[in-house]
């Protein structure tokens, strides 16, 4: 983190009533979204550059975009980022922007970052005088605020979208877009003026489009916000262990479900891994945190339709809270296990915490 960025924290007092910042934090979360309004002449190459993401990553959360060469202006797309606790002061993400000739803080904030931040907010964390930003060979810290939820409001939501309000938008129009209730949206934005036409609000992830939900599922099978490290899948091959890892037709109480913690995945050989059980194969590591079927059922209200937040390629995804942590759990279709494993191997570089049942 640059020295000018750290300096800004000690002196910053935000007075704008239209820009909500969540003060004080102890930790962030691995995934949040920004709702990026696509302006004319912009394209995915540029959006990927300013968001420090790959085009493929952005497309994975925006399935309605037909191809990377075609993104419709005057629409919103989701850009993913980590929501970090910055110096214990607030939740946000710092994008790194390479300046262009003629750039101003206003242009960067309002146009290039589609009002996900403010010009004053960008200026706070950069040392350049607003009238003397270099034309080339300089990088700006562009700070965007985000949310990981508030357990005092509700424990049901853990994935949030930073959403810049636009002219002519109202609470009613946002409700219609998100499939959330007005009460839920207002509970996370109690001081927001939804008719102001500007400012940020935070929308729970249950309001994501089906395309974005599919992206969350496919990119990491399921999203779980930090269980003290990155948990990875362990897939057991013999019949006895299959009954303990995946949901089967056995009565409740006879099935178990495991996620694996610590080191990254390795390619399995026929002899397994050193230090790991010889019965493990596929994708695994040497430690595990186990969740019983009963615990998963309770956490998802018996896989209630009310907790369902999406449908992936090989099963439904349910919201849950596991041992004090917000989670999304994919209940896998047993008949698709072979295809599921193939998909899992392809996406296993995901930096999030994952659980399957």
UniProtKB/TrEMBL annotation:
The keyword Protease does not apply. CDD domains: LysM. InterPro entries: CERK1/LYK3-like, Kinase-like_dom_sf, LysM, LysM_RLK3/10, Prot_kinase_dom, Protein_kinase_ATP_BS. Residues 1-23 form the signal peptide. It comes from the Eukaryota. SUPFAM superfamilies: Protein kinase-like (PK-like). GO terms for cellular component: plasma membrane. It is a single-pass membrane protein. One of its GO terms (molecular function) is ATP binding. Pfam families: LysM_RLK. This is Protein kinase domain-containing protein. It comes from Ilex paraguariensis (yerba mate).
